[in-house]
Specification:
Layout (H helix, E strand, L loop, with lengths): L1 H12 L1 H39 L11 E6 L3 H4 L1 H15 L3 E6 L5 H8 L5 E6 L1 H12 L4 H4 L4 E5 L7 H4 L6 H14 L2 E11 L5 E3 L2 E5 H7 L11 H9 L8 E8 L2 E2 L14 H13 L16 E7 L1 E5 L11 E2 L1 E5 L6 H13 L9 E5 L1 E5 L7 E4 L2 E4 L3 E13 L2 H12 L1
Parallel strand pairs: 1-2, 1-3, 3-4
Antiparallel strand pairs: 5-6, 5-18, 7-11, 7-16, 8-10, 8-15, 9-12, 11-13, 13-14, 15-18, 16-17
Helix pairs in contact: 2-4, 2-9, 4-9, 5-6, 10-11, 10-13, 11-13
Family: Belongs to the AGK family.
Subcellular location: Mitochondrion inner membrane; Mitochondrion intermembrane space
Membrane topology: Peripheral membrane protein
């Protein structure tokens, strides 16, 4: 008892050191417990992947080849370690023939994709920038019609991973989020995603899955990292200080656009079997004795372009991939023209909201549904576009919707949730 009393007396007399020690032990225990939980998640995911690897395949069927484009610079240089610890073991246990292509500099994935040989799966491991580079390289290929049918997997490793909200359930645990995304590739469920083709007057087209932003909110949001020392107030500070430079902030442009297009029926996944020989001979004889009449070409109706002069604080052109509707009957992109009459307080508040949801369209905005548009900027316009969170020089562009152009692997629970929401 006397010894215990001495211990308590010592602790009480050195209460600052005691408090620090308790906090340190608590933090260390919590850190070790978190590491243990992460290892359990990895183990469970590997056991699930092994089930796919143990499946028997015919001896004459080659292994499926998966080409992984890994951006090690994503997530502030942590992407390689995240991939090797959480995703790579799952892919190797699944029975896939995995070929990992590591990019060394910005733009390399685009070039490598244009040179890639045949593969069964394409897997993108990185953030929004890596996704945009890969799909741009894919859709610039001369044989893009065939390559765009290859299913694509996305492993979210970057700072911004917009597609994660569509393809995978929300998760606060990064390890669980990465393992769920990798397992979704093995499960094979896919959803079709729209693509925007954005083409300048001289440049090659750039392709986007989220959309294009041009305006004051985007410009201020890019500068938020400069105010890192303000912690959680850095976003509000960036928008607040941007109001000192110029007010009101207006962007003038001319917009021409075409309305939505009807969605064509889905193409059958399996090609019909070849008819028997006697059926083919009969058809050829019928064509020989009664050749088809030449059809008179019908006049094509002129496209109904709408024209609009606009003055806005920000313009955004977005796909519907964020709120995916698998049963919709029309294909279109959403053009949001925000009013240029916002107050400084509204500007600061909305700027913070747009950091969470970049393509949010406020109630007082003009919303247009279009399948194609041409954005004309006044001569001498400065500034930049944000295309899938990547910066490009602002210039006159034509934006064309490519509906359901690419198929991405998704978590089966998310696909079921989309179908259930469409029925309701």
């Amino acid at each position: 008892m006397a010894g215990a009393g001495k211990v308590f007396a010592t602790l009480r007399s050195h209460w600052k050191k005691t408090t620090f020690g308790v906090c340190l032990l608590s933090w260390g225990g919590n850190w070790l417990y978190g590491k243990h939980c992460d290892n359990l998640l990895r183990r469970a995911a590997c056991l699930e992947a092994q089930v796919f690897g143990n499946e028997l395949i015919p001896s004459n069927m080659p292994l499926k080849k998966a080409t992984v484009f890994l951006n090690p610079a994503a997530c502030k240089g942590k992407a390689r370690n995240l991939f090797e610890k959480n995703a790579a073991p799952i892919l190797h246990l699944s029975g896939l023939d995995v070929n990992i292509v590591t990019t060394d500099y910005e733009g390399q994935a685009k070039k490598l994709m244009e040179l890639m040989e045949n593969t069964d799966l394409i897997i993108i491991a990185g953030g929004d920038g890596t996704v945009q580079e890969v799909i741009t390289g894919l859709l610039r290929r001369a044989d893009e019609a065939a390559f765009s049918k290859i299913p694509i997997g996305f492993i979210p490793l970057g700072k911004t991973c917009t597609l994660s909200h569509t393809l995978y359930p929300e998760s606060v645990n990064q390890v669980q989020h990465i393992t769920n995304a990798t397992l979704a590739i093995l499960k094979g469920e896919t959803v079709p995603l729209d693509v925007l083709q954005i083409k300048g007057e001289k440049e090659q087209p750039v392709f986007a899955l989220s959309g294009l932003r041009w305006g004051s909110y985007r410009d201020a949001g890019v500068k938020a990292s400069k105010y890192w020392y303000l912690g959680p107030l850095k976003t509000k500070a960036a928008h607040f200080f941007s109001t000192f430079k110029e007010w009101p902030q207006k962007h003038q442009a001319a917009l021409m656009y075409l309305g939505p297009t009807e969605r064509p029926p889905d193409e059958p996944e399996e090609k019909p079997s070849r008819p028997p020989l006697y059926v083919r001979l009969y058809r050829r004889l019928c064509l020989y004795w009664s050749p088809p009449r030449k059809e008179i070409p019908q006049e094509v109706a002129p496209e109904d372009w709408q024209e609009l002069k606009l003055s806005t604080v920000e313009l955004s052109i977005a796909t519907q991939n964020r709120q995916l509707d698998l049963t919709r009957t029309e294909d279109f992109m959403n053009i949001c023209i925000e009013a240029d009459t916002v107050s400084k307080g509204q500007f600061v508040n909305r700027g913070s909201q747009k950091m969470r949801d970049p393509h949010m369209c406020p109630e007082d905005s003009q919303c247009i549904q279009a399948s194609r548009c041409i954005l004309q900027l006044p001569e001498g316009t400065e500034g930049s576009f944000g295309i899938d969170n990547e910066e490009y020089e602002a210039m006159p562009v034509e934006v064309k919707l490519l509906p359901r152009k690419l198929r991405f692997f998704c978590d089966p629970r998310m696909r079921e949730q989309m179908l259930r929401a469409a029925v309701q």
